[in-house]
Fold each of these.
Amino acid sequence: MEFQSRWRAVLERIETAARKAGRSPSQVNLMAVTKQQPAQAMMEAAAHGARLFGENYVQEFEAKLGAVKQVEGARVHLIGHLQSNKARLAAKLFDGVDSVDSIKLGSKLDQACGELGKKMPILFEVNVGGESSKSGVAPVSSEFEEMLRAAAEWKHLELRGLMCIPPFDDDAETSRPYFRMLRTIAEEVRARQLPGVKMEVLSMGMSHDLEVAIEEGSTLVRIGTALFGPRRTH
Ligand SMILES: *Cc1c(COP(=O)(O)O)cnc(C)c1O
């Protein structure tokens, strides 16, 4: 399938789901997930209007950086697990890190951004399914509480919301309780009005379950295969 028809189909799915949920499609942002896709795929998406990209691996993105720099207004966020020893490089390369899942990582990123003289938006990744194979902070945990408190002290990071990846299942409905859990957590945190903590972004929904995510309040869907087809090795 041509990229153009996949791009249109995804936009249509977002619009239909938003309307069905009584929401404005403009409240749902689209992140094009380009992991294991060549820089060419990014350029093609950019030509159709994509400006927000998600990449999973620091080194892989480093190789595509030259291409992305040519796209006016492009922003690339890290959405994959980040080891704190790569925090410096990630702070340098990315416009945001959506997968912050520990105090240690947040502190390293904050320090690196301070040295680079940059302020970076972040999300906390929450391990909603409690899966040991996935990263993310446990939803009701002392670590999560400490991270919320630390966010006020990270002068070079701006906590904007939460991200989750529910346990995978072909049936998108399986994701619903996890999306609902993330939204509830965000609402509870927002109500506490903690200093330095914003909860406007709910990054949830991928190719197979974006409709359910939008129904449950997603403000950002992360779409890979539905836009670019199967991932290639690079
Ligand atoms: C790969 C990936 C996506 C995109 O998944 P698709 O099913 O291809 O749409 C979204 N979010 C994260 C964190 C990913 O790693």
Amino acid sequence: MSSLFLYAVVTLAAIWLIDKWRKRLAFYEKLRWVNKVPGLPLIGNALEFKDPTKSLTRMQEVLLENDGLCYVELLYRPIILISNYNFVEWLLSSNTLIEKSLDYKFLHNWLEDGILISTGATWKNGRKILSPAFHFSVLEEIVTKFDKPTLILIELLEKEVGKDSVNIYSYIKNYALDVICESSMGIEVEAQKKSQSTYVKSVDSMCNIVVDRAFNPLKTKDWLYMLTPSYYKEKAYVRYLHSMSDKVIKSKKSSRQNGIKEDKDDDTGRKKKNAFLDLLLTYKDQNGEPLSEKFIREQVDTIMFAGHDTTSMGLCFAIHCLSKNREEQEKAFKEIKEISEGKDKFIYADLQEMRYLELIIKETLRLYPTVPFYSRNTSQDFIFQENKVIPKDVTLLTCAYAINRDPKVFKEPEKFIPTRFLDTDVKPFSYLPFSAGPRNCIGQKFAMLEMKATLAKLLLNFEILPSIPEHNVILSAEAVLKSKNGFCVRLKKRTI
Ligand code: HEM
Ligand SMILES: *[C@@H]1O[C@H](CO)[C@@H](O)[C@H](O)[C@H]1NC(C)=O
């Protein structure tokens, strides 16, 4: 009896294995047209891409060898690495290949159906509702919200003037958090002054947990993750973050209902447009229905996440580049000084005029795209070109870092040359810090304005010099591109 049972089990297992194997072969057959980077059995190429300080250069290397398209496997997970112009154009322009890959799932507990990670109709609807919130008339107002945090930042950095070396990372990070909280929720968290606040800590810890899960195979599967302490920590952070957003939404909502006008008119009597949250609270659909509290919370949390680490790293890298390129710094300073003559605040139009500073930021994001890669999941078989099928359930990973440093497009790609954006006509899909197509960065203009406003004020107040001893960044490709050893510079007070 028992031997019969054993026999049945073994047979079933064999059938199951053979079926798996057959499917795998069919899968490889479809992908024959993509070069495979040789790997080890079972773990595939996991070892080559495990270390975030080496993964980008390795990606760049294999992409150069394979004309911008190659196949790797991380613990059986099929991934196509991409920097090829035609493929990137096809992929990012697509209106159907819009589902994000597994890596983004770890954000789900926190951001739920927010537009960064949702797909299909949910994403489309969210994107349509949010787009007007990034219209220039709104951004014009948002720009005014940068002033207060910028003043605090300068005040804090003034205490560091004259030191041989100051690591600006935490200053900038807390600053960016102040900016995004004020502009997305209309709340002052004063991260710069109270970096120990639970809110600031929760946002920061959530970002770290999410990155850790994406890189730690032991935490990828939900059932294994649930056995680790981070699972419980994450639960607590998410509960707290959601309760905070809910509280702010509820209180804003009730003060509206009670007719308390929070948004004061400005000197000219113009109605002030407030934070993203206020816009979402006043939104009515065609039937006059307001948005649900859940929808609002998800989008506000999403903006908070997508809009703070990215810009803070962009700023850190820009400051790093300015310290290393003094001539460029002086050119930007001259331009800013002229524009600032007789003003103590910059308005939207002033920032638009800072063209040289814009070139510097563009060049910074070329060398250091703060989102170094981003990826999609094929929810079905897709056909790229004749006879070129991409089977379903493959991760398509666009490597912005490799694209932005392609020597065929950018001469001397490792050098910091802001004016390159003036004389080469860079084609749209060969420079991709903000992605492109329907799922590009919705906050691109916001990010540019924030970085310009901040750098302009910094340059008016400080000369940014290399630290002593001179510092070189060690790039680390986490969800966001970071520097493992921080960003050290030396600050000298400007005497204008
Ligand atoms: C230097 C700063 C920034 C960079 C480099 C950047 C880059 C990107 C990239 C590459 C994507 C596409 C990601 C993907 O395909 O998975 C993206 C999406 C997004 N970004 Fe940004 N971003 C920046 C700042 C911001 C800011 C300030 C905000 C909000 C205020 C923002 C909000 C978003 C949102 C909501 C999405 C999702 C859009 C969608 O899927 O429809 N980003 N960003
Ligand atoms: C990717 O698409 C496949 C096919 O529809 C699906 O089975 C899989 O769950 C998707 N993965 C993610 C991470 O969305």
